[in-house]
Every structure is written in C-alpha cells, then in structure tokens.
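User: Please fill in residues for this 155-position structure.
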C-alpha cells in the first residue's frame, strides 16, 4: 500500500511540474485573440535576403575580378557579390571603372543565363555588357561586338 501511495504522489508531482512548464511556455506567446504578424506584411524580411533554394546552394562564392579594356589600356577591380536569386548575383564596380567601360560603375547585377552567357545590368535593368566564359576563371565580352574587354578572377 505504501508503494502505491508513493507512486501516486510522485505521478501527481511530475504532472504538476509539467503543467507549470507548459504554462510558462505559453506565457511567451501573445494572447489567444492576438494574431502573429506576417513577416512579409510586417516588412521584417530584408530586401536583399540571400536565396537559400537548393539551386543556389551550389552557386559560386563572391569573387573579385580584374577587368581590362585592352583598347583603352585601362584596368579596374570589380566584385561579384552575394546571391540575389537563383541566377543573379550582386555586382560592385567603383567609379574609376567608368574609364574601362562607360556605365560599368552603375552595374548592380551579374546574371548567369541559361545559354552560359553572363549579363551585367544596371539598377534599371539596362544591359551594360554581355560576357562569355573563356578559359579557367576568365570571361570575355561578347556584346557589344568589337569591345576588347576581359575579366579575370583573382585568387
């Protein structure tokens, strides 16, 4: 009989602790009548949040490139940044890159196309350069035709 009473007392004690734990956990949430704010409506999602889709998990990391215009004999360093979408990356070129190619300093997007080309576009979506992959870690300009420009990834 003593074992039965001890077992009943221990069970009631543990049940009471469980009730207190659940009550404490429920106390952290808003009242039952209040709705949780949707993160999209509340605007709590960053505007340039990186995409974590399975396709973007294999994207190459940010990189620095040397971009050279052989006709003008000018060079500058540009940066391909973080993933924006599954095909698009951020892009940064300092103001002196306009000496290499007009409008290069305004480029904001590096987009990898299905045909293997890369397009560099400004914030308005206007095309500045189209690149094709060359040997190793380099690119050459395909459009505009006749522009003798190359990008070389730096280590």
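Assistant: Residues filled in for all 155 positions:
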């Amino acid at each position: 009989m003593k074992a039965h009473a001890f077992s009943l007392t221990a069970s009631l004690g543990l049940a009471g602790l469980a009730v207190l734990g659940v009550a404490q956990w429920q106390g952290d949430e808003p009242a039952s009548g209040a709705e949780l704010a949707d993160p999209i409506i509340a605007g709590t999602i960053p505007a340039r949040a990186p995409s974590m889709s399975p396709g973007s998990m294999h994207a190459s990391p940010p990189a620095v490139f040397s971009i050279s215009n052989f006709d003008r004999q000018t060079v500058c360093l540009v940066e391909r940044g973080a993933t924006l979408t599954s095909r698009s990356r951020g892009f940064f070129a300092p103001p002196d890159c306009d000496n290499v190619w007009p409008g290069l300093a305004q480029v904001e997007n590096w987009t990898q196309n299905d045909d293997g080309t890369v397009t560099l576009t400004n914030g308005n979506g206007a095309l500045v350069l189209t690149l094709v992959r060359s040997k190793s870690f380099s690119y050459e300009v395909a459009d505009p035709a006749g522009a003798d420009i190359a990008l070389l990834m730096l280590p």
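For context: The first strand starts at residue 63 and ends at 69.
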